Amino acid sequence: MRAIGGVAILAVIGWRVGTGPFLDGLRGLDLRSIVLAVVITCATTSACAYRWQVIARGLGVGFRLSWAIAEYYRSQFLNTLLPGGIVGDVYRGVGHGRAVGSISRGLRAVAWERTAGQIVQLGLTGSVLAVLSSPARSALPVILACTAVVVLAMAGTVRFAPRTGMSRSAHAWRVAASDMRHGLLARGAWPAITVASLVGVVGHVSVFVIAARAVGVAAPLRVLIPLALLVLVAASLPTNIGGWGPREGAAAWSFAGAGLGAGHGVASATAFGVLMVIATLPGAIVVAATVRRRHAASGSASPIERGPHRALRH
């Protein structure tokens, strides 16, 4: 159903603006924009992998940063190819969980890592929309409401989690509260998580600006940056096909509202999507290496099960 939603959005966009903007997004890319996107994505991937490492360490299942960067590249590559945009993250969490003997903690570390990134992204988007007099400011109440709901839900979980009780819900509440206290809100964790998340958001915004410039959008940064942040928030919605769908829809709507034209928005989002696929290609190398090691192992433990054990800090 999520894939169908992404297809429906793309079909509506194609019906309204035609295929021209999609083709413009492909034609506008050059070697300079590709190289810049690859370099910036390397920095953002490293920052996000570090965020994952910090949270996993707080949950007692830490690992080496070098291993985390390789796994993060693979998850991003899979997310850009498969429907939903989260398959790579699920694979990353399951593989880590099998390695440490707790799939639950492996998946929770990834879930909290993604949640922390989304909170910082929403907070930064709301701050930029509040400070800059952007045509996209009309979206500010929705962004602030979403941020408040997430923050209040997390605060309520930590504050009111039941200390006793044997039911599944009581246990889930206690686990979530413990994860947030030790993985996200610990004194030495939350500043590092915040900084890493800011690096990630700024990096993605920079790649979007590069994509917009490549397709001929000459709007000043004070106009383009808020639009890029809104598009990135929409891109995080799981109703997509490898990231495609809501991203292009939000770009068409926000660019049209800013007077830049829906076609330019679709072209910018298309160029951004292609740049992200290219920039995450190192993940394909990790996938290929994993498959080759599995075939070579022939009956021994899989590389996902073996690799992290050497990097875990017990």
Q: Main traits of this protein?
A:
single chain; 314 residues; mainly alpha; 76% helix; 0% strand; disordered C terminus
What is the helix fraction of residues, given as a range?
over 70%
| Biggest β-sheet description | none
Number of spatially distinct domains = 1
Which regions have little confidence, pLDDT < 50, spanning 5+ residues? 301-306, 309-314
What form results from the Cα inertia axes? globular
How far apart the termini lie comes to 41 Å
How many beta-strand elements?
0
Q: Compute the number of helices.
A: 14
Which structural class do the helices and strands define?
mainly alpha
Mean pLDDT: 86
Order of helices and strands: HHHHHHHHHHHHHH
Indicate the topology.
Layout: H1 2-17, H2 20-27, H3 31-58, H4 65-81, H5 87-100, H6 103-131, H7 140-160, H8 168-184, H9 190-214, H10 221-235, H11 246-257, H12 262-279, H13 282-297, H14 303-306
Short recap of the structure:
The chain is mostly helical and 314 residues long.
Can you describe what's shown?
This protein is mainly alpha-helical and about 325 residues long. About 75% of the residues lie in helices and about 0% in strands. The protein is built from 14 helices and no strands. It starts with a helix and ends in an 8-residue tail after the last helix.
